[in-house]
Amino acid sequence: QGGNSMPGFSLSQSSSQGDPNDDYCACCHNGGDVLCCDRCPKVFHLQCHIPELSAVPSGSFVCTICAGDSPVNNEEITSSGKRKSSGGLSG
């Protein structure tokens, strides 16, 4: 018979055709009503996104991952927010 469904589960065929966004929340990996990032294929439930969103934003939406995505130029950020060289330890 269908081959794409089990009791309580169905596989959507339309989502894989022409939709660049993921089908499941990037945080909890569940489907449902999700918000699509306009820069990457990730999708999020409002309550799963960090910071949590209380409503669907008007206009375009960029997830926290993309909003903070900037080149670090061979430096790493320490927990205090300062940058330090990634040169490593010398013997």
Give the averaged pLDDT, no decimals.
74
The CATH class label of the domain at 20-68 is: Alpha Beta
User: What characteristic shape results from the CA principal axes?
Assistant: globular
Spans where pLDDT lies below 50 across 5 or more residues: 9-15, 72-88
Topology:
Blueprint: E1 5-6, E2 9-10, E3 35-36, E4 43-44, H1 64-67, E5 75-77, E6 83-85
Antiparallel strand pairs: 1-2, 3-4, 5-6
Keywords: Metal-binding, Zinc, Zinc-finger
Region (Disordered): 1-20, 69-91
Pfam family, one: PHD
Provide a descriptive summary of the structure in words:
This protein has one helix at about 65; strands at about 5, 10, 35, 45, 75, 85. The chain has about 90 residues and is mostly beta strands. It has a domain at about 20-70: Herpes Virus-1, CATH 3.30.40. The strands form three sheets. The chain has a two-stranded antiparallel ribbon. The longest helix is centred in the last third of the chain and has 4 residues, at about 65. The chain is globular, with a radius of gyration of 19 Å. The termini are far apart.
Core attributes:
91 residues, mainly beta, Herpes Virus-1, two-stranded antiparallel ribbon, two-stranded antiparallel sheet, 6 strands, 4% helix, 15% strand, globular
Short structural summary:
With 91 residues, this protein is mostly beta strands.
